[in-house]
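Recap for those who missed Tuesday's class. We walked through two folding examples back to back. For each one, the amino acid string is listed first and its predicted structure tokens come directly after. Nothing is annotated here on purpose, so try labeling regions yourself before you check the end of the notes.
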Amino acid sequence: MEKIIILFFILLFFFKIAKFDPLCKAGVNYCLVCNDIANLCSMCENEIYIPDNNGGCKKKCVVGINNCLECDEEGNLCIKCDIGYFYDENGGCSYTDNCEMSDNGECIKCKNNFILIGLEEGIKICKSLYSEDLKNCIQINNETGLCEDCKEGYYLDIYDKRCSTIKNCYQSVFSKCIKCKFGYYLDRKEDECKVQKENFAHCKETINSITCDICDDEYHFDENGKCISIKNCAKESSEYNICEKCFPGYYLSENKASCTIEQNCYSGDKVNGLCKTCKERFYIDYKDGKCKSNQEDNEFKYCKEANEVCTKCLDNYYLGDDYKCSTTQNCSESYNGTCVECIEDYFIGLDHKCTNIEHCIYSYYFDDCYECEDGYYYNKKNKTCLISEGIFKNCKYGNENTFCERCKDDYYLNQTDHLCYSNEIDGPFYKCAVTDENAENCYICTKDYNIGGIDHKCSKVQGCEISEDENKCLQCDFFYCLDVSTGKCEHNDEAKNKDKIFYYRCNKTNEEGTECALCIDDYVLKNGLCVDEYHCVEQNEDGTCKRCFHNAYNSFCINHDFGCIDLLYDYCLECNDSSDLDKCTKCFDGYKINKFNQCDKIKEN
């Protein structure tokens, strides 16, 4: 009996602790309902989440979700990923190797000793902190993965963003300088970049530390071995003040002491001084060797070379029988660069291009049509415009003689029977262009319409997941905030909404559209704004944040309204400008704000 009583009080003790600091919070970490006794989540947001042991929900493994092809027996981890994807430790797959956690196939956290960086077009990769180009680096750009600051005693190479031991070096290879900054020359014997002065003025490189061996660009040696300049000279002679070759667009004078050029000329003839090729927007007239404008509305528009009449057009322009240039091949007559008549056996379309396909009004090329006349469709096997009838009724583009591939503007393609149906009727296929493979949902919308990520309906609202009608949204995706008063999805990036800053990190506003009512994941709603409390590492006595997370790779500053703000620069403690959230207002000790509102280290006297 005593053991039962003791066990009861132990359970009661742990229950009070759990009540005092509950692990589970409804609306946090995908949890809808908490179990107060167990202090765990009892109901998650949807079928792809299951309760975890930390009071929240985690993604369970679902075949076909998060690029997973096969799950383990417990349904927690993926054991087979789609081609090009890698396992992560969150039960799913990402297209980033060395990833620890992903969301819908995109890596959001890398393994230890790897940093997540973003490349062009939103692609992210996990880059090793021990890679050669990050050696001796203490600060890395999270977008490019390149070094921004080096350890003490090392200098950042401006050209390849590596750390070099050579001060004032512009370009190095494996810690060996090959080019110094402007105003310095490379002393290869001492492996240093030295100031260009006295006998080394305008010098680029020396081998013996005594005399200059290579001059700066556009400079050459005089009879005393000093660097002097002949402007626009590309190759200097060993003779004093003599140039052998000029830069493109210039030609030598008779005494080879200067490089000159005709007006608007790109390269000249060294023998007769006449121009050979002209600068952009000009053509060469071989009649007098002068460069003349090819932008005026006359017979030389878009011309490149002429001799009384145009003989050669600019790239991607074609010379017609009337000696005028147009963008259309097989054109016989043009007006101001636009074709008005084609050669024999070719037809001119509404796009003023010549094609050998009858009834074609818009063409990719002269023997391939994009759109036929009304009442015709394009058969890409025969490369002809045929009458739209039978299974090709309302078809715009057909594959051989079996099925349609693209319908007219007011119709959508059903991918099960490959027939065209009206998309003007209000319903699941309103403004749809192509259905999915089973014709259950719309897959592609018509021009100016966006596909819903959840309801697959077409609407004019960008970023809408579920729409009420074509102009009003009910739920936006992660990167947008639903303004309930307008039904529009607004970007929840503060940089794009300076006039309504409460959109920042918000997923849904109140009915009036005056403040946020629901934040995106991992942010807390306070006073109509979405606050980051997660990255706060030290609090004041009143519960406000005193210091945000900061290390060599991630930097957050304190904002009194929004909590911690992620920065692209370092050593900022506070950022409280309401119109520019990441504008630094206070730096760490030992640093001061510069004119770019960033923090520079205070130099010691």
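Example two. Treat it independently of the first, because the proteins are unrelated.
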Amino acid sequence: MPLKAELGNWEKFIKRYRRNESQWYLIPKAKTYDEDSIRLLIEGLRILHHWFCEPELLSKDEKEYVRNYLREPQRNLLPDDVSIGRWGSAAQVFFASKLFKGSIVSREQQDKDLKEVFDKIIDVVEGGESYHEIESRFGRELLIEGFSANSRNFINIYQRLGLAWIEKNHLVTITSIGKSLIENDADYRPLLEHQLRRLQFYNPTFERIRGRYGHIRVFPFNFCLQLIVNLRPHEITKEEFALFVTKSVTMEDIGICLHWIREFRSLSDDRKKNIMRRLGRPQRGRARPLIVESLETASKNISLLTLSGPWARETIESSEGILLKDIKKARNILSKDGKLQFVEFESKESWFCQYGDISRKFDIESAIDYYARIGKVNKAKELTRKAPDIKRAEEVLQERLKEKYIEDFYRDHLGLIESGLRLYRKGSRTGQQFETPDAGIIDLLTVTPGNLFVVIEFKREKTSDETIGQVLRYMGWVKRNLSLGEIVRAYIVALDFDKHINYSLHGMQHPLIPNPEGKNLIQLYRHGFDASRMGAVSLNAIEQ
């Protein structure tokens, strides 16, 4: 890392910089973000939500339009569901057409002939032709690689900001923060600031480039804010961002980054130009020198970070940069965010479950809970010793470990709950602590011998009828996303149950809800583990 060079040793700094490929890369594609572009992104998100996420709210004509688009003419099949479907070729073309039609994406193409073709595609999509007919007419390559490219750019941005969960062959999900942004688009800045303050890099939305960025552990918004508050004047130029800020690896690098910026500012203009010139010399094996790429990336990062907050993107010394506008607000933010805890999320599902939920925090207690929940108990124990309130952190860990003990027992003895149940598995994912982008975390997701889904929710102590709503939410998510219309059942497993819970169960009497095999949709099961009498987990030693 260049910052690890001896302070002021510019020869070594330049050599290390030209060998160091890593840098912050917060947002995709060549795009500068400003108020107009954010409003277009929000409008695109509204389109995505309207057509993809709530098919039951579509008008009669809209439902018929979607059915016609998805029909298979040769087989004369109409879909039973009016949803535009899982994220695949048909969905991408449909979304791209809506973006073009709404002038959210420009219809002007550099190639006149290509523009005419795109206009024809938009016309036939809007005119009610089916995707199968459109693909046969224009070809899949043109539709996906050309026409739909802009829709993928929008999707990438939504995922990076935690606004939507959109994966190939999965249904589209707008997260709670995404829904809040749609509902409060007139005053989007507080919501956007909320997301930017919680944005950590690296995170699993960059899984394809893990090798280059996976070692970085920073909260970019907080890192830059700490820097700019301590700099005089309170500003960071694009060159300083590209040279030093974007090469920082951990939050602990703030101090050394600050020193390098001050050292750079003490140089004469000629010396600065000489350093930039040497960094810009051609590099073997690269089309462009690293510094050129870093400067371009710095522009995008700066435009993103300054969309909200106590600063602004301004011209500084004939170049763009970050200028602090409100130091009082900056210090207030830093006092609130001083306990941010970086978490090494294992999957996109884990990341979206945390980052996409407007109510979730990135503090040390949340990190302890996450690591304990996924079985990284040693990591959770280490964090308890670093917590500002160690006693409170230990309590959080103890409660989570007790829950996990009960959960692990029944994971290994599912037959005690119902004969034939097995843990759901798909690829590297299992049904234990099954994370969803907007419905919460399912304790155990299981399947029957007939491949019907069964949700299992555990409670350490006595539980009330509030749990019914939580379990129904899980069941609804599984039914919509995994079960493909099949019945989903559930068990609530607790030490005891409030008497009112039975009224909630009897309330599920709608005649359109069948009882498969004569069983209730939600059943109760007493586990017999009294958490108040369970021994505490030792925190004195860390297992190897």
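Answers for example two:
The first strand starts at residue 164 and ends at 165.
The chain has four domains: 2-26+199-336, 35-184, 348-407, 408-531.
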